Amino acid sequence: MGPIPSLLSVFLITIFITFTFATAYLPNGTLSDDQGSAPCSTDPTNPLRNTYCHTNWDNPPGGDLIHGSTADECMPNGLCQNRGVSTKSGEEQPPWTRYYRVYCGTATWEGCLEVCSTGPYADHVVQVTPCDGTSTSEKWCCENSTACCNTDTAIVIPQVLGRANLSASVSSSASAPLSPATATSSPTAAAHSSGGISGGQITGVVVGSIIGGLLMGLVGFLVWFRWQRGRAMTAKENNEQGVFEHRIAPQDSRELEAESRHELGDENLKEARNELA
Question: Where along the chain do its domains lie?
Fold first, then answer.
């Protein structure tokens, strides 16, 4: 394997480690160890590279809740769309489409859709409801409610993340939390909710960090080992080439004199034979 494939292998391993141990944050800056979430894009030029949705859940979008929480779909506006149905006993629900603000890949939420992210919303995942009932709605409300739609507290979300600024000039927490009497909950909404890191999650993060460090050390060792082996191979080739080109010199002046006399005697013998002939 040449140097180019070796560098490619190191690059791919590094990318694998990076996304295996990717970190996601709540709006309050708390690290989340939610194994169901993943970045919406691994392309560093994609606006959704820092947006996290629950795309790692095994149950595909639109699936039955009886098989577990359904996976999210990343939307171009930075929200996460969740579709599903439930035939689970006691939790039956017709087909739904809901939207959530989940996590961000940066603790400061730079490059993410920062809505419904202050006050009580900063500590968990929040459902966001479109005022016109579609994924392309211009106005949205925090939580499972459209109560803010006809007020100046409605949140304006561009259809494509980063294409325009929020034009409603409202705080992301403008839509006040719903009271227990007006808020509605669902198994999916509960599954999306996530707080800070628990003791077990902290242990998982520490273990993951240690494993990541060991893998990075292994990559470094492999690079060093291949470099050293390359140097040894080059030195061996140079030595073998030197053997073929080497000329053994006479050991001292006596050997040089003996060789000269021998050559002179041969010349005289040849001349004598030529004269006799």
Answer: 23-196, 252-277
